[in-house]
Amino acid sequence: MRLSRLPSAVLLCAASLFVLLSLPFSLSANTSVYYYLEVYYKVLSPLGVPQQVITVNGTIPGPLINTTTNWDVVINVLNGLNEPLLLTWDGMQHRRNSWQDGVLGTNCPIPPGWNWTYQFQAKDQIGSFFYFPSLGLQRAAGGFGGITVNNRNTVPVPFAQPDGDFTIFIGDWYTKNHTDLRKLLDEGKDLGIPDGVLINGKGPYRYNSILVPETVDYETVNVEPGKTYRIRVHNIGTSTSLNFRIQNHNLLLVEAEGTYTIQQNFTNLDIHVGQSYSFLVTMDQNASSDYYIVASARFVNESDEPAWDRVTGVAILHYSNSKGAASGPLPDPPNDFYYTSYSMDQAKTIKMNTSAGAARPNPQGSFHYGSINVTHTYLISSVPPLYINDKRRSTLNGISFIPPETPLRLADLHELKGVYALDFPSRPKNREPRLGRSAINASYKGFIEIVFQNNDTKIHTYHLDGYAFFVVGMDYGEWSKSNRASYNKWDAISRTTTQVFPGAWTAVLVSLDNVGIWNLRSENLDRWYLGEEVYVRVADPGGYNRTEMMVPDNVLYCGLLSALQRAQTPHTRSSASSVRVLMNLNFATILVLVLLAIIP
């Protein structure tokens, strides 16, 4: 064999085949994509102040996971932090496979220096999603990136093919480390007003010489005149709703978290924490100068708290024929002082395009959710933080969730008792708030109604792993059964994260066709950290493994099952280099390189 004549890169790929064969996943007939993600600390200054952030492959945001409906996704994650890590895949439904969900109810954390391989299928999904670290406010320090699930070639998108595709992350940001933010919450304090808003991990363009330091780097989106681009926007922040707008440009809404929408133009749109949207934006201006891209704080009182002025992210939209830099005032945010229901009314206009295909050729509206009988109703109430056993906590229906040391799903598999209780109440009870690991005992193939009642003074967003739900109604006041008459039973948007305005309710319908244990949480990181979450247990009466995928061979053990865990040699950046090369090549390419290496 002529190995000595081959380039070192080919030899590396040949050697890496042994790593591929040792990875704990099986290849199906579907096309697969492979990624290798290294999660490390790094000192950056996004707002002009040096701080420790969390990067994925050295950047914020991390690499885009780009896949297609029904493809297998294999992601090897190296934890280079000094604390445990889990990545969760916000919006990915992991059909029959909650083992890959990346939250404490289903997975043991990846220890420092270890790596772990996630494998899941983008089964019957399209759209714009994201990944992030799910433990201990780590998302407030970065560690996030985008997920794009493309249509199969056999299913057309309901608009002309765009000339390009951009992903934009917006989010409030603190210059304190996430460990310092945790300490504030542990001491019973609020996080306070954020120090700014980042757009794609960068600070604001210097639109104001007083508010923005001269040294801050900002994001620039480069475009060509006359072309139309798909822009996917995710609010990845800690707790602040943001209004998104592009100066002098319309935002044609086409998709929300995996559902194609009725297409309508917005000059601005409120995007709440954890939510994702896709817009088509046509470059139809004269490019007399660059244009502002703005994400500014909503539902805050700037007159009482002038520090909110700084909570504005600004990027630049740059035409190739632009005649100068952006200047002058930012485009105005919504003026809803006398129109307090502006944001809610805006949200109600976002509806499903019932005639479009998505993951399947049949129209999205062919699932007639409005004609299905509800099998159970859960009224889930949130209130301002309160004290339980002298600790400041957040609750749902009076229960503040305690993170488990043993994942709930593993406890079920090994028939462990006392790890959690299936006693989450279907509505608030008149009793003292308490700590607990309480879960919802849901019936497989049931059809449930969840009403989120926000009795807090700030807006909340709620996310359900494993599912998309139909947002059938929202309004101010206390929910009652009579409100069902106002539900949208035909073209309600199906999505994974919904907002609940203060003093208001939001109702969603969920078809429980996905077995597993699934996290229902506040996407507001401070409230999530303080206990505002619950798990939904959806078990097949015939046994979990009758319809659920088997526990993966590389499952991690912890808590009461720690004795089952095998030791793993901690990885370093150098020892992981061959795996990184491997995971960033597709399988066919690797096989070709290996064959070249062994043919005489």
What does this structure look like?
This protein is mainly beta and 600 residues long. It is built from eight helices and 33 strands. The strands form eight sheets. It has a six-stranded mixed sheet with strand order 10-9-12-17-14-15, with no helix packed on it. A hairpin with a 2-residue loop joins β14 (251-256) and β15. α1 (8-22) crosses α7 and α1 (8-22) packs across α8. The longest helix is centred in the first third of the chain and has 15 residues, at 8-22. The termini are close together. The relative contact order is 0.15. Pfam families: Cu-oxidase, Cu-oxidase_2, Cu-oxidase_3. Belongs to the multicopper oxidase family. Residues 41-153, 165-322, 406-540 form the Plastocyanin-like domain.
In a few lines, what is going on in this structure?
By secondary structure, the chain is mainly beta. Keywords: Signal.
Strand content: 25-35%
**How many extended strands?**
33
Query: Whole-number radius of gyration?
Result: 24 Å
Structural class: mainly beta
Helix count?
A: 8
Q: Distance between termini?
A: 5 Å
Uncertain parts? 1-28
Helix content: 10-25%
